[in-house]
Amino acid sequence: MYLSSQPNFSLEVMHPSFKKVQMLESDNFITELNQPLNMATDPPFHQAYKSLIEDTSNNIFGKKLVLVEECELPLIDLSRILHNDNVVDESEREECKEEIARASQQWGFFQVTNHGISKDLLEKMREEQVKVFKQPFDKKSKEDKFMNFPAGSYRWGTPSATCLNQLSWSEAFHIPMADISASAAAFTTLSSTLEQFATTVAGLARKLTAILAEKLGRESTFFQENCLPSTCYLRMNRYPPCPVPSAIHGLMPHTDSDFLTILHQDEVGGLQLVKDGKWIAVKPNPEALIVNIGDLFQAWSNDVYKSVEHRVVTNPSTERFSIAYFFCPSYDTVIQNSEPSNYRKFSFREFRLQVQEDVQKYGHKVGLPRFLISH
């Protein structure tokens, strides 16, 4: 299977820690792309996209160098809301909630520290993730026998790509929460680590969404009732080195089709997002988790909170790892808000189907504009 170009549940991210990041230029595009990767473990990008690469390679010659500024996302210390009431002053608790809501409105992204996920657990999760991706490609592509994950869990590339800008140079395991405990006996350490990580991050997602609902003056039990463990997902990502990082994304530009995404990434970097109409590179912070608003929350909040376009850029020499938790509702959950609303009422199922249809037809997601009401 390929990594779906449909960015249903996606977060993430870019280059080493450059203050400026080079985004375009290659004199020997075809030659570089034909250099062998680690053929034992890497997906066969070169073979699968040979015709696409050859058909479009001339289009990148002569393009100018693009520099992307690096920035630090808003950083929020969650110890003010995660400690017991008798430890933190109520004014500090409210200040923290305001910071979360403000970052969600102005950035759509923020970082959190003192988030309740231990350093030991994050390190163990990364170790297990690396072990899985270092398995031979032939084994990973038969994930139903490899780890007892459901068919289609392992994805790589972009099957719907019609040009290089639509190609994602990455591989991933997209795992429904309900299927984590079913992983194979040979990977019991991975299974238990995934389950522990997912359970802990799910608690954080519930806490954050309840705060964001509260700041809107809306009923926070909506998420408890509609976003159950069985409806959420984890995705383990690996971005192999790419011979021409200036021309191919690790993950193409997209927004996330969920309520909230929580990401843990390594220190390689790669995440870029749109702020004030331009791309900026996110500086990695090893102590923090990254949180971003998804399409459903933007619609549910009537555009108060922003689902921001983001992408992952590739690295010419260093692989990158990340793991994302996608806080999703059941397919029958209806997304609506009080009048006057910017969006018509729609179900999560309807949204997903529309995204899939657009990706198949246009090669990319259209998303929320499909559901806008013309006033």
From TrEMBL:
<protein>
    <submittedName>
        <fullName>Gibberellin 2-beta-dioxygenase 8</fullName>
    </submittedName>
</protein>
